[in-house]
Amino acid sequence: MIPFRVTFRPGVPISEQAVYAATRAIVAGQLRAGEPFPSVRMLSRELKINPNTAHKVIAQLLNDGLLESRPGIGTVVAELPGSTATQRTDLLGPQIEALVVEAKRLSIDLDDVTSAISRHWKRLSTPNAGEPE
To answer: Considering only Cβ atoms within 10 Å of each terminal Cβ, which end of the chain, N or C, has fewer?
Structure first.
């Protein structure tokens, strides 16, 4: 079983979605340095994607420095200096851009968007938020 989930979205390449999910798991600490990363075969089987796509995902994560290949061991999560708030925030880049584009399309000013985010944040931060009563 792979230690992250991918929610497939139409219009976005599967490889990008898998790289994003794996990056998020690594930066958030769900995958720790030195832990083995799934092989191409396992990633392909678990995500139900083509092995070439799984290879592309692993190659991208290696290129980004999030994974490293260790002779005799395999591919493992690389040692990161610790995820910063900026790294974690950067993971929200596509969602933030979509929000900004939609707000501008609807002529909503920044203060109103910020207030709406703050209201949602507070609502979801309260105990038992989202649970049926």
So the answer is: C
**Could you tell me if 46 and 1 are in contact, meaning their C-beta atoms sit under 8 angstroms apart?**
yes
- Residue 78: count of CB within 10 angstroms of its CB: 18
Q: Helix, strand, coil % (nearest 5) of the chain?
A: 55, 5, 40
Phi then psi for 51, rounded to 5 degrees? Answer: -55, -35
Q: How confident is the model at residue 127 (pLDDT cuts 50, 70, 90)?
A: low
Contact 42, 81 (CB under 8 A): no
> How far from 110 is each of 98, 101, 104, 113, CA to CA, in Å?
14, 11, 9, 5
Domain at 14-77: CATH code: 1.10.10.10
**Ramachandran sector of residue 34 (left: φ over 0; alpha: ψ -120 to 50; beta: rest):** left
Q: Is the pLDDT of residue 132 over 70?
A: no
